[in-house]
Amino acid sequence: MGNRRGFMPGCSLPSYSPKNVELTVQYLKKHYPELSGIQKCCGKPTKALGQVELFEERFGSLVQDIKDCEIDEMIVACQSCMNTLRESKEFKTTSLWELLPQIGLPQELIGKAKDSDVVFSVHDSCSIRDLNGIHEGIRWILKELGYKVAEPEHTKDKTRCCGFGGMIVPVNPDVAKKVMDRRVKDFPTENIVVYCAACRQSMILGGGQAWHILDLIWGDVVYKNSKPPEDVLSNPVKAWINRFKSKGAIKRAIKK
Asked: 14: Cβ–Cβ under 8 A, 6 or more apart, which residues?
């Protein structure tokens, strides 16, 4: 096993925030100068819909790209990507949320939110409810930044679906909305932090105020009167434009 690493932000994160993608790649590049970047779908949605042959085609194409880049370890920001990529034995797959506690946050960001009056509830992605290392990594990040956290009853390994799981939104949007509403009502605080951009959209559609963990790392300090970023994912055109911008952002960050 070599030491060449790659970073893959997934699909929803680049559609949500090119800035968060670029700043994350820039930071990883400081630790791993040989870093490669890949922006491509892992094929999980096709698998969820039962389109097995299409999934195998898309996943196979992604694995080939990773091999062509001679990547030994893929760092991923998306939980579905992580579960999917771990089906391949061609390389190691590591969650960004487990990696950051190992390499640390930028020194200037530690404690930046110590004076914030916000208490966040954490929504854990249901696809990794059995991976405690990721749960603890997210809470470590929040503690390092200085934010306070209140845990809902359904948290970590007992978390509930945000409403986007299993491609239910295009299949049965009414059921999806009920799941979103129920999940938001679970939280003891008005403000919610997630580590999946699609989950963030669910929390907003369910009536909550939600931030992605990368918003808290790279963005301004959040206070009680702060408003969360726009729900870009509900606008397909804006989401597509952001994905295009993210592709350019990854290229710029990798070349530096």
From this structure: 21, 39, 242, 243, 246, 247
Task: Please check the confidence at residue 181 and state whether its pLDDT lies above 80.
Answer: yes
Answer for the pair 116, 147: CB distance below 8 angstroms, yes or no: yes
Predicted structure pTM score: 0.93
Which residue has 């916000």 as its token pair?
118
Segment holding 253, helix H or strand E: helix 236-255
Q: What's the rounded Cα separation, in Å, for the pair 160 and 123?
A: 8
Tokens of 230: 């726009």
Angle between helices 197-205 and 173-185 (to 10 degrees): 90
Distance linking the first and last C-alpha atoms of the chain: 26
Instruction: Encode pLDDT of 197-223 as tens digits.
Output: 999 999 999 999 999 999 999 999 999
Q: Which residues form the domain of 192?
A: 109-231
d(CA 86, CA 52): 17
CATH number at residue 92: 3.40.50
